[in-house]
Protein backbone atom coordinates (compact mmCIF):
# COMPACT_ATOMS: atom_id res chain seq x y z
CA UNK A 1 0.00 0.00 0.00
CA UNK A 2 1.47 3.36 -0.99
CA UNK A 3 0.01 6.79 -0.19
CA UNK A 4 1.39 10.27 -0.78
CA UNK A 5 1.69 12.45 2.34
CA UNK A 6 3.08 15.93 2.95
CA UNK A 7 5.48 17.20 5.57
CA UNK A 8 3.66 19.61 7.90
CA UNK A 9 4.77 22.16 10.48
CA UNK A 10 7.76 21.07 12.57
CA UNK A 11 8.39 18.27 10.03
CA UNK A 12 5.29 16.37 11.18
CA UNK A 13 4.17 13.47 8.99
CA UNK A 14 0.60 12.28 9.39
CA UNK A 15 -0.02 8.63 8.62
CA UNK A 16 -3.31 8.12 6.76
CA UNK A 17 -5.92 6.29 8.87
CA UNK A 18 -6.14 3.46 6.33
CA UNK A 19 -2.41 2.74 6.74
CA UNK A 20 -2.42 3.18 10.53
CA UNK A 21 -5.33 0.73 10.81
CA UNK A 22 -3.61 -1.75 8.49
CA UNK A 23 -0.49 -1.94 10.68
CA UNK A 24 -2.32 -1.54 14.00
CA UNK A 25 -0.91 1.77 15.23
CA UNK A 26 -2.73 4.66 16.84
CA UNK A 27 -1.98 8.04 18.38
CA UNK A 28 0.62 7.80 21.15
CA UNK A 29 2.19 4.53 19.96
CA UNK A 30 6.00 4.42 19.74
CA UNK A 31 7.75 3.81 16.45
CA UNK A 32 11.36 3.37 15.42
CA UNK A 33 12.59 5.65 12.62
CA UNK A 34 15.20 4.10 10.34
CA UNK A 35 17.08 6.13 7.72
CA UNK A 36 18.94 4.20 5.03
CA UNK A 37 19.95 5.00 1.46
CA UNK A 38 17.97 8.24 1.46
CA UNK A 39 14.76 6.54 2.63
CA UNK A 40 12.82 6.85 5.89
CA UNK A 41 11.22 3.71 7.35
CA UNK A 42 8.76 3.81 10.26
CA UNK A 43 8.68 0.59 12.29
CA UNK A 44 5.89 0.07 14.87
CA UNK A 45 7.22 -0.96 18.28
CA UNK A 46 4.40 -3.30 19.23
CA UNK A 47 4.50 -4.67 22.77
CA UNK A 48 4.69 -8.39 23.25
CA UNK A 49 3.41 -10.02 26.40
CA UNK A 50 5.71 -9.12 29.27
CA UNK A 51 7.76 -6.64 27.23
CA UNK A 52 7.93 -3.00 28.30
CA UNK A 53 10.09 -0.06 27.28
CA UNK A 54 11.29 2.60 29.69
CA UNK A 55 13.85 5.35 29.87
CA UNK A 56 16.22 5.04 32.82
CA UNK A 57 19.38 6.82 33.85
CA UNK A 58 22.72 5.19 34.52
CA UNK A 59 22.34 6.16 38.18
CA UNK A 60 19.03 4.29 38.41
CA UNK A 61 20.59 1.17 36.90
CA UNK A 62 23.52 1.34 39.32
CA UNK A 63 21.18 1.83 42.28
CA UNK A 64 19.10 -1.23 41.38
CA UNK A 65 22.27 -3.27 40.83
CA UNK A 66 23.62 -2.30 44.25
CA UNK A 67 20.31 -3.11 45.92
CA UNK A 68 20.18 -6.55 44.29
CA UNK A 69 23.77 -7.25 45.31
CA UNK A 70 23.01 -6.32 48.92
CA UNK A 71 19.92 -8.56 48.96
CA UNK A 72 21.92 -11.46 47.55
CA UNK A 73 24.67 -11.03 50.15
CA UNK A 74 22.12 -10.86 53.00
CA UNK A 75 20.26 -13.96 51.83
CA UNK A 76 23.51 -15.95 51.48
CA UNK A 77 24.80 -15.12 54.98
TrEMBL record:
InterPro entries: SpoVT-AbrB_dom (IPR007159), SpoVT-AbrB_sf (IPR037914). Residues 2-47 form the SpoVT-AbrB domain. NCBIfam families: lp_hng_hel_AbrB (TIGR01439). GO terms for molecular function: DNA binding. This is AbrB family transcriptional regulator. Pfam families: MazE_antitoxin. SUPFAM superfamilies: AbrB/MazE/MraZ-like.
Amino acid sequence: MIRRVRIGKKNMVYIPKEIADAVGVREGDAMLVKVSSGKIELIPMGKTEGEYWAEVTLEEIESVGEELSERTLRSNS
